[in-house]
């Protein structure tokens, strides 16, 4: 029986040694892979960086391209390569904006459609824009969207409902959790202004009452 136990123990030791060897081999393979990756990166093509310019006249295009090619020769080499893209000024502001968007801006996102570009362009010419379904609060800011007219209230007006609930149930303290974006901040500010207005009204009433008492 003692001999069998020893044999079992020796088998366990062998298994442990095999496991250790396998782990060491895996580590060596990983190190080799990392080295290969670094070599591969060194051999890859340089990263392309677009340099855009809005030029007053077309004759400056060649000067701009030569300057970019000189920069490539000095600094580009293996890490990155500069690509010269130029746009000349146009008399029409809308055409100018379109040419900049089409020629200079790459990787444009088309995730969701908003009336923001229409509002900016129309605001430049003081053309009114009617928002039928847009409920974002930012379109109420006349310093940004000059001629945007809305037919539905913004999301921040929900703060009026919260304020009415507080007044109805006589809540003095609430915890407000909002998203960290323009909509959340707008709703929070709206509620804060409503609460401040209520406090100022209360103070005025108290002052008037005190004055009436003094007169009596």
Helix and strand pattern: HEHEHHEEHH
The shape is flat
The strand order across the widest sheet is: 1-2
CATH superfamily of the largest domain: Response regulator
Poorly predicted regions are 1-8, 32-43
Number of strands: 4
Helix proportion: 55-70%
Kindly describe this structure.
- The protein has 216 residues and is mainly alpha-helical.
- The protein folds into 2 domains: 47-150, 3-Layer(aba) Sandwich (Rossmann fold), CATH 3.40.50.2300; 157-207, no CATH class.
- The protein is 58% helix and 11% strand.
- The chain is built from 6 helices and 4 strands, in the order αβαβααββαα.
- The strands form 2 sheets. The chain has a two-stranded parallel sheet.
- Strand 1, helix 2 (61-76) and strand 2 (80-88) form a beta-alpha-beta unit.
- It is flat.
- Mean pLDDT is 80; it is low at 1-8 and 32-43.
Condensed summary:
The chain contains 6 helices and 4 strands, in the order αβαβααββαα.
Strand and helix layout:
Layout: H1 2-43, E1 47-55, H2 61-76, E2 80-88, H3 93-104, H4 116-124, E3 129-131, E4 148-150, H5 158-169, H6 182-215
Parallel strand pairs: 1-2, 3-4
Helix pairs in contact: 5-6
Which key phrases capture this entry?
6 helices, Rossmann fold, two-stranded parallel ribbon, 2 domains, 216 residues, mainly alpha, membrane, disordered N terminus, 58% helix, flat
């Amino acid at each position: 029986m003692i001999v069998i136990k020893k044999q079992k123990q020796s088998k366990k030791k062998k298994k442990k040694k095999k496991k250790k060897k396998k782990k060491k081999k895996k580590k060596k393979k990983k190190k080799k892979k990392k080295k290969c990756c670094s070599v591969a990166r060194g051999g890859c093509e340089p990263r392309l960086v677009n340099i855009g310019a809005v030029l007053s006249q077309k004759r400056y295009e060649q000067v701009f391209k030569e300057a970019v090619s000189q920069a490539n020769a000095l600094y580009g080499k293996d890490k990155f390569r500069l690509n010269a893209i130029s746009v000349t000024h146009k008399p029409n502001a809308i055409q100018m904006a379109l040419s900049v968007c089409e020629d200079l801006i790459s990787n444009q996102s088309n995730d969701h459609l908003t009336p923001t570009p229409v509002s900016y362009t129309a605001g430049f010419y003081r053309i009114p824009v009617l928002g039928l379904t847009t409920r974002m609060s930012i379109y109420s800011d006349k310093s940004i969207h000059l001629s945007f007219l809305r037919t539905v209230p913004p999301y921040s007006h929900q703060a009026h409902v919260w304020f009415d609930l507080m007044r109805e149930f006589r809540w003095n303290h609430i915890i407000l959790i909002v998203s960290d974006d323009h909509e959340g901040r707008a709703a929070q500010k709206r509620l804060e202004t409503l609460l401040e207005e209520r406090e100022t009204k209360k103070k005025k009433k108290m002052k008037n009452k005190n004055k009436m008492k003094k007169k009596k």
